[in-house]
Amino acid sequence: MAEKIAVIGEVYEGNLRPITLECLAAAENLSEDGEIIIIFCGEKPTEIICQEISYYSAAKIVWTSLDKKERIVEMYNSCLQKIIEKEKPTKIIFGNTEFGKAVAPYISEKLSFPLFSNVMDLQRKDNAMRATMPVFSGKLHQIINIDFPQFIITLKPNSFKMPMKKEQKNIPIEEMKIDKKAPIFPLIQMEKSSESRKDLLDAKVIVAGGRGLQNEEGYHLLQQLASLVDGTVGVSRGAVDLGVADISLLIGQTGKTVSPDIYIACGISGAIQHIVGMNAAKTVVAINNDQKAPIFEEADYGVVGDIFEVLPALIKELESYK
């Protein structure tokens, strides 16, 4: 009997998140002749999402409906467990996102599947899979053989190449009806942040600020620059401690791990706790008034200067260019 691999899909603001396609690529690495399915909890996948998936190796989509107020970790845990128990996959792949990090450990414990987190590379070696994962805040990589017949992995975002498109096919969609218990901690309401922004994990350009922002004026400059380069705002712990930015924008060991094409660090000294969250960026530009700041060791391009002088000049130049 061929094995079955389950990819746990994610949707953000109506669009399929790129991490889901990365998980599909990993599933293709794991699968020889097995069946790959994609599982969604929430709204029914749109026709556009289904068409996008139809170019790849997934054999079917399984989904269950969750109302907006039911979209909390407790409900995701319960619904995913029931779908997985019915479908009986031997391998389960999540993105190492807020969702994956919250749900994968629960599924691992309930199903007694070993969990391997933040995997950045998978290679088949003989009859086992060889997984690479960062350790010690990304200073080292550990390579281990996974020779369990059943396991769960979470993938580090932007670590896997998108899978190759194949001939488009019709992909069946199955809805699973699940009897759901009322959550212990019900969701009362959700409020959208007044600041519209792209998700940091999917951002190609990130403009990040640290303690050097000093105040709201500095944060406003950061927002202006991000808008001009079609980027997303991120921050280090220093900016959160100042009270100028929300903790949801935090990049680092206790925040998000990102890997954009361009990372512009403004007034960030470069403590290791922050570096581990952004050192996968393809190009790093650092702006800091301390020429000995550790961030310059990570930078491809560096500017030694006061951000209250450098950023206005850069913004003016970009505005004239546009």
CATH architecture call of the largest domain: 3-Layer(aba) Sandwich
Q: What string, H for helix and E for strand, traces the elements in order? A: EEEHEHEHEHEEEEEEEHEHEHEHEH
Number of domains: 2
Q: List the strand order in the largest sheet.
A: 7-11-6-1-4-5-12
Mean pLDDT, nearest integer? 90
Radius of gyration over C-alpha positions, nearest whole angstrom:
21 Å
Helix fraction by DSSP (H/I, runs of at least 4): 25-40%
Tally the beta strands.
17
CATH homologous superfamily annotation of the largest domain? HUPs
- DSSP strand content: 25-35%
- Report the top-level CATH class of the largest domain: Alpha Beta
Which regions have little confidence, pLDDT < 50, spanning 5+ residues? none
Structural class computed from helices and strand pairing:
alpha/beta
Helical run tally: 9
Major sheet characteristics: 7 strands, parallel
Shape: globular
According to CATH, the fold-level topology of the largest domain is Rossmann fold
Q: Alpha-carbon distance between the termini?
A: 59 Å
Structural write-up:
The protein is of the alpha/beta class and 322 residues long. The chain folds into 2 domains: 4-175, 3-Layer(aba) Sandwich (Rossmann fold), CATH 3.40.50.620; 200-321, TPP-binding domain (Rossmann fold, 3-Layer(aba) Sandwich), CATH 3.40.50. It has 9 helices and 17 strands. It has helices at residues 18-30, 47-53, 73-87, 98-111, 216-228, 237-242, 272-278, 295-298, 307-321; strands spanning 4-8, 11-12, 15-16, 35-42, 60-65, 91-95, 115-119, 121-125, 128-135, 140-146, 151-155, 173-175, 205-209, 232-235, 262-266, 283-288, 301-304. The strands form 4 sheets. It has a 7-stranded parallel β-sheet, with helices on both faces. Strand 15, helix 7 and strand 16 form a beta-alpha-beta unit. The longest helix is centred in the first third of the chain and has 15 residues, at 73-87. The N and C termini lie far apart (59 Å). The mean pLDDT is 90.
